[in-house]
Design a protein that fits this description.
By secondary structure, the chain is α+β, with helices and mostly antiparallel strands. It is built from 3 helices and 7 strands. The radius of gyration is 15 Å and the shape is globular. It starts with 5 loop residues before the first helix and ends in a 6-residue tail after the last strand. The mean pLDDT is about 90.
Length: about 160
């Protein structure tokens, strides 16, 4: 994975997010609003690691509670006037969205980063951190009127070969 730079991973993740928004979620529109502003400290969302022996790439989608609920409703095809999903359904749906996104990224870069395995999605609320040495791209997006932040973080293991 370290033979693929963070910019390439980010470009692929953006393209996969655009396809996911339109094709899977049925949202009308995809716009990059801001690059590398930083994650807000009080967000909800899910991320999932793509794991290799030498590194891991974490792909995630975050926003405020209302936007995360709206993403879940889009996946579940729940109309605003219908009964809204509860907290566990929202977490499962956003985890599934992240799983699809990470799987698409993995597939696109399989030749450049073979032997990459998908981890499990983790739904979280609050601050997200990957420690020293992580390289991250944080991009604010508008997915058909739903504001989200795409996180792509590359963490290289420093103990490889030790």
């Amino acid at each position: 994975m370290t033979n693929v730079d963070i910019e390439t991973w980010t470009d692929v993740a953006l393209e996969c997010t655009r396809e996911l928004a339109v094709d899977l979620l049925g949202l009308d529109g995809f716009e990059i609003v801001c690059r590398n502003r930083g994650l807000r400290p009080s967000v909800q969302g899910a991320f999932l690691p793509l794991i290799r022996d030498d590194s891991s790439l974490h792909v995630g989608i975050f926003s405020d509670a209302d936007a995360i609920r709206r993403l879940a409703c889009a996946l579940l095809q729940v109309e605003e006037q219908d009964e809204e999903p509860d907290g566990s359904e929202v977490a499962d749906a956003v985890g599934e969205i992240t799983n699809v996104l990470a799987g698409a990224v993995k597939t696109r870069l399989e030749d450049a980063a073979p032997d990459t395995e998908l981890g499990l999605p983790l739904f979280t609320g609050g601050a997200v951190s990957f420690g020293h040495g992580a390289r991250a791209s944080i991009i604010d997006l508008d997915l058909g009127g739903i504001p989200v932040t795409l996180l792509v973080a590359l963490v290289v293991r420093d103990d490889v070969g030790s």
